[in-house]
Structures are given as structure tokens and as C-alpha cells.
């Protein structure tokens, strides 16, 4: 378990390490994510965050032991530098890479994610085609992988449906993002935010 200070050790809480509760938690942690920054165990989940920016989803995944690669546009050096600084400040063992959607460089062929994350990547309709082509390629590189993203229904819904069909993708789940929030918080927010799980349509 990742300790509060971000180090890769076990929690120093009062739970007895030999208790059934502790054994169950350790088993879930090991088989779901792994429990060490240096763990190369086959059970460790490989996660890539696209358009990471502030990288919050990827950082949380790294906190629970996933093997995380944080990516953003290769031309945005200042963003990539900031992502690395945030990882260092939180003492997290993430890889930081420049990945430009729609550009087929060597990095694209080296990534084999089990989970792709995209927190707020569907905002510029001009980038949708490059994004979905990249997502489709990365999903094809690892059978059974998924893309989890959020979508704020601004105006490009029909374009997204067309491009998903074009690149052989389908949406498995669509959840109202506000359903996770207390009613008093959700009522003060406008728009329609969805949490989507996207896979290859095969």
C-alpha cells in the first residue's frame, strides 16, 4: 500500500498484518495493481493517461500501485516538465512521455496499455479524429484493453458517434457523471457530463 507521504512502502497503521482483513486487502492490491513502484509483477495494471495535463487520474492510479505512463502533446514541453515535477513532488514512479495524437512515432508502438484514461480530452472537435485513431491503435495493441473517459456534451455528440464508428470503437457504459455527486453539489453545475468506457467493436 502507498503510504501517506507518497513512498512505496506499506501503511504503518494499526491493522494487524496477519489479520484476515489485512490479508484480503493485500491480496486485492497485489492482483489488481501491485504494491511497489519497482514491482514488475505480471499482475500490475499498465495505465496510460492521454492528454494528461494536471494528471490527476493517472496520479491516483499510481498511488494505488498501477504502472502509469502520463502523456501529453510532444510539442508542449512545459506541460511535460510540469507533469514530471508533480510526480516528483508526490514521490510517484510514473513515466512521462510526449505523445501527439495521430502521430505514429516509435513511442506509439512501445505502449501496450490495459487501461487508457482521458479525463477531459473531448473538448476540441478538430482533435477528435486524431484522438480516436490513437485510442483505436493503442486498444488494438493490447487485447481486452479499455478507454475510460469523460464527455461534456457541448455540441460534438454526433461527430463523436461517427468517428467511433469510423475507427471501430463502441461505448460499453455511459454513466451520468453527476450521479456520483451529492444532490446539493450537482444542482449547482450546468451541462451534461458522462463517464464512458470505450472498447474495440469486434
Automatic annotation (TrEMBL):
Keywords: Methyltransferase, S-adenosyl-L-methionine, Transferase. GO terms for cellular component: cytoplasm; nucleus. Pfam families: Methyltransf_16 (PF10294). One of its GO terms (molecular function) is methyltransferase activity. It comes from the Eukaryota. The keyword Cell division does not apply. Residues 1-16 have a biased composition (Low complexity). One of its GO terms (biological process) is methylation. The keyword Methyltransferase applies. This is Methyltransferase-like protein 23. It comes from Saponaria officinalis.
Amino acid at each position: 500500500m502507498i503510504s501517506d507521504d507518497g513512498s512505496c512502502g506499506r501503511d504503518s497503521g494499526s491493522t494487524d498484518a496477519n489479520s484476515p482483513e489485512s490479508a484480503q486487502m493485500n491480496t486485492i492490491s497485489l492482483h489488481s495493481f501491485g504494491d511497489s513502484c519497482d514491482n514488475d509483477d505480471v499482475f500490475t495494471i499498465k495505465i496510460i493517461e492521454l492528454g494528461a495535463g494536471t494528471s490527476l487520474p493517472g496520479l491516483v492510479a499510481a498511488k494505488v500501485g498501477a504502472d502509469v505512463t502520463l502523456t501529453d502533446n510532444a510539442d508542449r514541453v512545459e506541460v511535460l516538465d510540469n507533469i514530471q515535477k508533480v510526480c516528483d513532488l508526490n514521490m510517484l514512479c510514473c513515466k512521462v512521455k510526449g505523445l501527439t495524437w495521430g502521430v505514429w512515432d516509435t513511442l506509439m508502438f512501445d505502449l501496450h496499455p490495459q487501461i487508457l484514461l482521458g479525463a477531459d480530452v473531448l473538448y476540441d472537435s478538430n482533435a477528435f479524429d486524431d484522438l480516436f485513431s490513437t485510442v483505436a491503435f493503442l486498444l488494438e495493441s493490447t487485447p481486452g484493453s479499455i478507454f475510460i473517459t469523460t464527455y461534456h456534451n457541448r455540441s460534438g455528440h454526433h461527430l463523436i458517434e461517427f468517428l467511433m464508428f469510423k475507427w471501430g470503437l463502441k461505448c460499453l457504459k455511459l454513466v451520468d457523471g453527476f450521479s456520483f455527486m451529492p444532490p446539493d453539489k450537482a444542482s449547482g453545475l450546468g451541462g451534461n457530463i458522462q463517464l464512458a468506457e470505450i472498447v474495440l467493436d469486434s
